[in-house]
Amino acid sequence: KWCLLEFCKTFFEADDLKLRLRASHFPFTEPSMEVDVNCSWVDGQLKVGEGDDWMEILGSGMVHPNVIRAGGHDPDKVQGFAFGIGIDRLAMLKYGIPDLRAFFESDLRWLRHYGFSALDVPTLAGGLS
């Protein structure tokens, strides 16, 4: 839980972010869970890290023993933790983008509207912001 919370707090730049963990099923992890973040809609704008609404952002769990075996390791000696994030969903949340389809339309006006340059290279410290 700590790893997921710290990742999400850092990514969304929201120290008061709350997570909700829900049991789920994914074929490569056991046990598995889905992770939601608290959010709200204010004047048509999504605000992550505040409010009483929830939005699912990722799935996670302990790596299934069969996956560890398939990797040539003994699951009694080796464990793994995995989480998967829809990068498009995270970008929507971070930058307040209302419609997922816009990512796939190749419209330069859309890129400029959200302040992205097609030639920008993100850094670990600064991202694209």
From TrEMBL:
Record GO cellular component, one term: cytoplasm
Taxonomic path: unclassified sequences, metagenomes, ecological metagenomes
Stated name of the protein: Phenylalanyl-tRNA synthetase alpha chain
Organism encoding this protein: hydrothermal vent metagenome
InterPro entries noted in UniProt: aa-tRNA-synth_II/BPL/LPL, Phenylalanyl-tRNA_Synthase
Keyword Aminoacyl-tRNA synthetase: yes
Gene Ontology molecular function terms on file: ATP binding; phenylalanine-tRNA ligase activity; tRNA binding
Domain Phenylalanyl-tRNA synthetase: 1-113
GO biological process, one term: phenylalanyl-tRNA aminoacylation
Keyword annotations: Aminoacyl-tRNA synthetase, ATP-binding, Ligase, Nucleotide-binding, Protein biosynthesis
